[in-house]
Amino acid sequence: MPPKCLILGGTPRQVHEIQSCMGRLETADKQSVHIVENEIQASIDQIFSRLERLEILSSKEPPNKRQNARLRVDQLKYDVQHLQTALRNFQHRRHAREQQERQREELLSRTFTTNDSDTTIPMDESLQFNSSLQKVHNGMDDLILDGHNILDGLRTQ
Asked: GO molecular function terms here (predicted)?
């Protein structure tokens, strides 16, 4: 049976309960990890909707309490965004780990065969390219030699 994360109460308490559920994600088995992730995501979504209402209510507070109320709402919003990021990071690591396991299994179950007898290596283009480069190299050497000879001729005049 999957470990249930029971999340109740007010928003600050709910944030702390989500944090404890995040710790359970690491120890959850493969079947229940999705359930725990979904419960955490649902709670985070619920908190975000509550925070929107709290923002509206904080703007209706008396001026002397308004700044403190907004500060608390902003702190809760930051905490919930941090939890959302942590959940996404966990999901990303889990997906990468599952993909590595699939690739490992695929590699281990693959049957290898010998090469076909029709194996050929297309070398004609490579040989032509190499000979063209060799001709260009020789041509540059000739140009440099001609330039050197011209300069020597000018010096002797």
From this structure: SNAP receptor activity
Tens digits of per-residue pLDDT, 82-97? 999 999 999 999 999 9
What are the distances in angstroms from CA 144 to CA 85, 109, 131, 135, 136? 64, 61, 20, 14, 12
**155 part of a folded domain:** no
Which domain, by its residues, includes 24? 4-108
Whether residue 83 contacts residue 43, with contact meaning beta carbons closer than 8 Å, is answered with no
> What SS3 class is residue 57?
helix
Residue 94 included in any domain: yes
CA separation for the pair 12, 16 (Å, rounded):
7
Q: Is 121 exposed, middle or buried (0-12, 13-18, 19+ CB in 10 A)?
A: exposed
Report how many domains make up the chain: 1
